[in-house]
Amino acid sequence: MPYPTIENYPYLKLEIDSKSVTLSQFTNYSRKGLHGAKIDYAFSGNAIVKRTPHEPKHLWAVTALASWEERNQFLLLAKLADTKIFTPPFDTYKITLSDVFLSLIEPTVSRPKAHDYQSVGMIGDIEYFAKFLVGIDLSSIEERPLGDWVELSFTMNELEKLTE
Fold first, then answer.
1. Is 73 helix (H, G, I), strand (E, B) or coil?
2. CA-closest candidate to residue 128, choices 104, 112, 150, 152
3. Strand, helix or coil at 52?
4. What is the pTM of this model?
5. Residue 147, Ramachandran bin (φ over 0: left; ψ between -120 and 50: alpha; else beta)
């Protein structure tokens, strides 16, 4: 399947319950894996490779330009997720993030695809846009009004692996 057209690429879509917001204009985007392999050295000089037993989680730092309507939807969604942390059932606070900004490259597809877009890379590796379950750190949200637009900065943490 082809990659998204330039009109709708890149974007981040956040969803919880029946509410969603799509952000598509960015001044900063970074996604990094946490808790990957770490190399230390023994006193003898030998390398010691340490790795957590689970697949590394991800951390996003995003700055997006949003309309006032998108800003309101984003804040509602973030605060709704935050209030659901203490409301039974206790796992409903997780936000589904479709990350169609930066593709994952892995030996196999380990997360649900954000879309059916995929391409086969080098010798069996798969490149695809993925979905994640995330939480937004409310204390990280910063807003800067820019006339008709608002610059939103925030961070998100992957909570657990989303399965289809």
1. helix
2. 104
3. coil
4. 0.79
5. left
Contacts (Cβ under 8 Å, ≥6 apart) of 147: none
Q: How many CA atoms lie within 13 A of 128 on its CB side?
A: 22
Q: What is the pLDDT of residues 113-127, one digit of tens each?
A: 776 555 545 555 677
Cβ atoms of 120 and 103 within 8 Å: the answer is no
Buried b (16+ CB within 10 A) or exposed e, 87-111: eeeeeebbbbbbbbbebbeeeeeeb
C-alpha of 34 from chain center: 13
Question: DSSP letters along 105-116, please?
Answer: EESS--S-EEEE
What average pLDDT does range 124-150 have in this prediction?
89
Name the DSSP class of 125. Answer: -
